[in-house]
Amino acid sequence: MPTRQPEFRRYLVPVNTGSTQQLFTDCLVIGAGIAGLRAALEAAEQCDVTLVCKGTLSDSNTWNAQGGIASVLAIEDSFESHVEDTLKTGCGLCDREVVERVVRQGPELIRQMDQWGAEFDRVDGKIDITREGGHSHPRIAHAHGDSTGRGLAEALVRRVKQQNKINIIENFFSIDLLTGPDGGCLGVIGHHSRAGYEIIWAAATILATGGAGRLYRETTNPEIATADGHAMAYRAGAVLRDMEFMQFHPTTLYIAGASRALITETLRGEGAILRDNTGKAFMKKYHPDGDLAPRDVVSRAILEQMLKTGSTHMNLDIRHFDKEHFAKRFPLINEICESFDIDIKTDMIPVRPSAHYMLGGVKADFMAQTTVPGLFACGEAASTGLHGANRLGSNSLLEGLVFGKIAGRSAVEWLGKMAGPEYRKMNVEIPLSDRSRLDTDDVRNSLRALMWRNVGITRKAKPLEEAQEIIRFWQRYVMDKVFENPFGWECQNMLTVALLMAQAAMTRNESRGVHYRGDYPERDDAHFAKHIEQVREPI
Q1: What SS3 class is residue 139?
Q2: Which residues pair with 4 in a beta bridge?
Q3: Pairing of strands 382-383, 49-52
Q4: Which domain holds residue 314?
Q5: In sequence order, what are the residues at sequence separation of 6 or more whose Cβ sits closer than 8 angstroms to the Cβ of residue 341?
Q6: Which pTM value belongs to this model?
Q7: Is 164 exposed, middle or buried (0-12, 13-18, 19+ CB in 10 A)?
Q8: Same domain, 122 and 178
Q9: Looking at the 3D structure of the chain, how many domains does it have?
């Protein structure tokens, strides 16, 4: 049974439907990453769709994804091999049926994206594929070198804009999901940068809001990744699953005072070597696969080596790469290196781990249906059973395509089964807080530092207890406030999800995949070969 957690209140803003602008749609898609865009396209084949995103269509984790998309495209590769690689990396918590379905749909959807104009890199006319850590065969397709996510997103955005049945609303902050007397989802309350508060009533709602990397001080994620979808779904009564599993990317460019930039692990797949500040290659000490070890192993190895050598970072050595080929193969990273005066022929790239990908999320079944009727979830916001306790590299974009398609189709099927939804006038009254004024910027920065320190790559009971105590203290001063801007709503969402993550990490007294407990360093299948679920206590 899922554990139930207390929540302060249902809606984050007072809304009177008599005075608030209202829109009506068959299917509402929240989020414009690869999963949301693909879901909108699928649903629009049979119904009207409204697609909203909190920034622009280019503000998503997908747009920033350097790594490729995994699929069985070579004759010497096989579905069985891709499935087994995924299950092995997932450390016993993957759903085999889901894994097989995603893997087997991959080639068809890659070909479809190719037809839709995704500019995949090619060799002799065929889509070029490479190998990454955790994969037993080359099966990683790329677009524009190290800008695969952007290449896929641009193709999807072009197609979405061509569809008359898709209404796109940018700069719309989704604040809370609306639910009816039966607990079913009826749409969303949101705020538009120009129009103000709006309610979008929807017969079916697809949550594709992305990840939660901004809960951590060190992260590869853009500013939008503040766990809004996870928090909204939790407040709406949805079950959240595996929230302890945050994947940390081992190699992020580390320049003191500069924003973090992802250095794709494809570099290690093509021969880059991790070295400490003495120039020594160290990964073979930690894993037989060396630099091609799974991400969680590499992340912990880098941290341990940093402690041993008293360093702020490790180094990625690509000095043996051909400089012209590197500039063509990895144009974005080449540009980043040049901007910091890093000459790859003579200099190594300083790197350290950062929070990267949220494996847990809103529990969604084989058809992307959540535990809330009428609410579907896909992409990084969802927990579908594909990744388990650790994500195989480049499976995330594949999951976005597959489950985006599934969610769009399931939403259409839901429309065919249900009677017309009953939309009611609503007036939610929230008492004003009598507490002192609040510096939300300070709370957010302090929370991110706390999560990195106490709920980071290595965890222990006492720091996890401390994190929960401090987050609850901040909640007492933040959750009773009525904000009128996204920065404040994001702060509330971040505090909500951070506490859930710390609680889940405290519950899992073992080490599995990306979740590493220093006080429980071994995997414990007898007690924890299972998912940890959390749901809001009914008010």
Answers
A1: coil
A2: 535
A3: unpaired
A4: 249-355
A5: none
A6: 0.91
A7: exposed
A8: yes
A9: 3
Rounded Cα–Cα distance for residues 204 and 355 (Å): 32
CA distance 440 to 430: 20
90 and 190 share a domain? yes
On whether the CB atoms of residues 532 and 518 are closer than 8 A, the answer is: no
Q: Which of 101, 150, 295, 352 is catalytic?
A: 295
pLDDT tops 90 at residue 436: no
- Beta partners for residue 21, in sequence order: 198
Q: Give residue 6's pLDDT band: very low, low, confident or very high (50, 70, 90).
A: very low
Q: Is 281 helix (H, G, I), strand (E, B) or coil?
A: strand
HEC states along 211-273? CCHHHCCCECCCCCCCCHHHHHHHHCCCCEECCCCEEEEEEEECCCCCCCEECCCHHHHCCCE
**Cα torsion through 222, 490, 392, 218, rounded to 10:** 60
Segment 112-133 mean pLDDT: 91
Q: Name the band, by pLDDT with cuts 50, 70 and 90, for residue 9.
A: very low
Q: In the 8-state DSSP scheme, what is residue 164? A: T
Helix (H) or strand (E) holding 90: none
Residues 6+ apart with CB under 8 A from 353: 218, 248, 249, 250, 251, 252, 299, 302, 303, 457
- Please confirm, yes or no, whether 536 is among the known catalytic residues: no
- Angstrom distance (rounded) from CA 241 to CA 387: 12
List strands edge to edge, sheet with 382-383: 3-5, 533-536, 240-241, 361-363, 382-383
Which residues are CB-neighbours of 325 under 8 A, at least 6 positions away? none
Claim to verify: residue 347 and residue 374 sit in the same structural domain: no
In a domain, 312, yes or no: yes
Q: How far is 285 from 272, CA to CA, in rounded Å?
A: 17
Identify which of 320, 330, 390, 352 has the alpha carbon closest to the alpha carbon of residue 133: 390
189 and 268 both lie in a single domain: no
Q: What is the pLDDT of residues 203-232, one digit of tens each?
A: 999 999 999 999 999 998 989 999 999 999
- Given a cut of 50, whether residue 10 has pLDDT beyond it is no
